[in-house]
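Tip: read the tokens left to right.
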């Protein structure tokens, strides 16, 4: 348990940032899910549109420190390759 005033503030800040990060991670996963659903559905145009919307969200999550930069790049690369196979 925090004793000092600064430590108490830090726990409040951490709790607030955790909620924000969880929301951003959830949003990112939702965008990825939409791309994967379009891929499994076999709809190339929908998959391209979903990928175009998902890529900035994934890269933004990496900039905010939610996922590592290379993890984000790998996810985008793999999704792009899967969409390319549809056509």
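Filled-in amino acids:
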């Amino acid at each position: 348990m925090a004793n000092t005033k600064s430590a108490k503030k830090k726990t409040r800040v951490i709790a607030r940032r955790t909620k924000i990060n969880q929301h951003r991670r959830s949003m990112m996963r939702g965008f990825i899910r939409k791309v994967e659903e379009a891929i499994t559905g076999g709809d190339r145009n929908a998959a391209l549109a979903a990928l175009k919307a998902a890529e900035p969200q994934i890269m933004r999550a990496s900039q905010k420190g939610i996922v590592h930069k290379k993890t984000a790049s790998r996810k985008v690369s793999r999704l792009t390759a899967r969409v390319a196979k549809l056509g």
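The CA atoms of residues 9 and 15 lie 10 Å apart. Residues 5-86 form a domain with the Methane Monooxygenase Hydroxylase; Chain G, domain 1 fold (CATH 1.20.58.110).
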